[in-house]
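Lecture 7 notes: from sequence to structure.
We start with the chain below.
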Amino acid sequence: MEIKIRQENANDYAKVSELIEAAFRDLEYSDHREHFLVERLRKSDAFIPELSLVAEIDNEIVGHILLTKLLIINETESFESLALAPVSVKPEFQGRGIGSRLITESHVIAKKLGYKSVILLGHENYYPRFGYEPTRKYGITMPFDVPEENCMVVSLTENGLLGVSGEVKYPAVFFE
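Predicted structure tokens for the same chain:
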């Protein structure tokens, strides 16, 4: 099974929307609106086309990941970072390493683009394998009430989180 990772394009939007909806359909912690979030993010200033990726097998889109801009702000400084939200794999293709490939490739591209970190809300047993650590370790907090163990950050560069602390400021489209 050869997995091809490439940048998403406008011709992919409908297929990606269907994929995201299917991927989150049966998850109890989902609001089942992730596909609408992706549509809003594509139209926002937070969108980075190079960090909206699809995974294909035999020319079929089976996975998608999106990293968008966010800020970490404290009393004196503001730090650029990225939000990983969401990563989606068609249910019948889950458990085959597609999500892992999308995460790994998105990190490589983000680092090449000059970003130093990625923040996410996610499963505490899945994301640490990619280097994600609790945000509390760095004094980074979320702007809403969520379990601490699900708030994670990864440094994309050596010392990428050195001196970084504050509250995450998501783009307004996350809350529409």
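Points to note: Strands lie at 4-7, 52-57, 60-73, 78-89, 117-121, 133-134, 140-141, 151-155, 166-169. The chain has three helices and nine strands.
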